Amino acid sequence: MIVLLAGLALVVAAVAAAYGLSRRRRRAGTVLLIAVNALLLASALLVVLLVLTGEPAQAAAPAESGDEANWAALLGAAIAVVGSSIGAAIAVAYTGSAALAALSERPELFGRAMVIVGLAEGIAIYGLIVAIILIGRS
C-alpha cells in the first residue's frame, strides 16, 4: 500500500512539474508528460504480466475453463476503449481547431461546428459500446 501511495505521489508531482514547465517551456513540459505516460503504460503492462503469470491466491476460487477467454475479452475491451479514445482525441483536436478558426470568422456557424466536433466524439462512444459487448460475452 505504501508503494502505491508513493507511486501516486510521484505521478502527481511529475504532472505538476510538467504543468509548470509547459507554462514556461512548452516542449519540455510535453516531453515530461510523454515520459510520465510511458512510465504509466510500462507499469500497467508489468502489472498485467504479473497477474497473468502469478500464482492464484489460496482463497481464490478454482480456475474455470473460461478463464482464458475471460482475460482475452477484458484485454480486447481495454484495447477497444484505449484505441477509440486516442482516435477521438486526435479527431477532436483537428476538428476543434478548425471549428474555432471558422467561428472566429463567422460566429453563426456555431451549431454546425459543434455537430462536427460531436461526431468526432462519437468515435470514443463506439469503442465503449464494443467494450461493453465484449465484457458482456465473457
From TrEMBL:
Its main location: membrane. It is a multi-pass membrane protein. The keyword rRNA-binding does not apply. GO terms for cellular component: proton-transporting V-type ATPase, V0 domain. The chain crosses the membrane at residues 28-52, 72-94, 114-135. It is found in: Membrane. Residues 75-134 form the V-ATPase proteolipid subunit C-like domain. The keyword Membrane applies. InterPro entries: ATPase_proteolipid_c-like_dom (IPR002379), ATPase_proteolipid_csu (IPR000245), F/V-ATP_Csub_sf (IPR035921). Keywords: Ion transport, Membrane, Transmembrane, Transmembrane helix, Transport. One of its GO terms (molecular function) is proton-transporting ATPase activity, rotational mechanism. Gene3D superfamilies: lithium bound rotor ring of v- atpase. It comes from the Bacteria. Belongs to the V-ATPase proteolipid subunit family. This is H+transporting two-sector ATPase C subunit.
